[in-house]
Amino acid sequence: METEDDPVERARRLFAGPIEFLKSAPGLQFLPDPDVPEIAFSGRSNVGKSSLINALTGRKSLARASVTPGRTQELNFFDVGNPLTFRLVDMPGYGYAKAPPRVVEQWKRLVRDFLRGRVVLKRTMLLIDSRHGVKPVDAEMMEMLDQAAVGYRIVLTKADKIKASELAAVTAATEAEARKHSAAYPLVHVTSAEKGMGIPELRAAVMQDALET
């Protein structure tokens, strides 16, 4: 039975309240003032980042999925709560093959500078497709987060798309990989935006990470 102090219920109420798109920032000079905590979402193109953010917030189109993977090369900010409690940051997807080297380098510079210099960034949620597990581009992102000393949680997406035995194996392998990284949270979150699996628990984790002092 859930109580008033239950973090899952508190997070549900918070995310059921006002959540609005604030702005897109193509460069650091366009970032909003660092006046509230921020939780960032990072992941490979096509990992289901937009779907997960929409599931967490209970909105169908808050974060828009791009038809062309890797098109979004900006940091997108969303205000949570009224009064404003914290922000969600949708980071540009990585690992798409068709991008020219110049665009990839531009992406890396923007993300690296944001991670290293954003004092209000409390945590990053690193999304990994459960059908594929940790790929080399994901490991590269984990290294970037380690070097920036930004704590991150690994979130497996699309868990409804594979068999339970395969999901258990990829979860164990991902947890083993997380233990090798200094900034990674040891617990891996298993989610399905489509089925709602793991969404209430991840929502509570986002809220607690944002509000911890």
Rg estimate, integer Å: 16 Å
Largest sheet: 7 strands, mixed
Overall average residue pLDDT: 90
Number of strands: 7
Structural class call reads: alpha/beta
Would you list the SSEs in sequence order as H and E? Answer: HEEHEEHEHEHEH
Give a nutshell description of this structure:
The chain is an alpha/beta fold and 213 residues long.
Structural description of this entry:
With about 210 residues, the protein is α/β, with parallel strands linked by helices. The protein has 6 helices and 7 strands; from the N terminus they run H-E-E-H-E-E-H-E-H-E-H-E-H. A 7-stranded mixed β-sheet has the order 1-3-4-2-5-6-7, with helices on both faces. Helix 4 links the parallel strand 5 and strand 6. The longest helix has 17 residues. It is globular and about 45 Å long. The model has no long low-confidence stretch (mean pLDDT about 90).
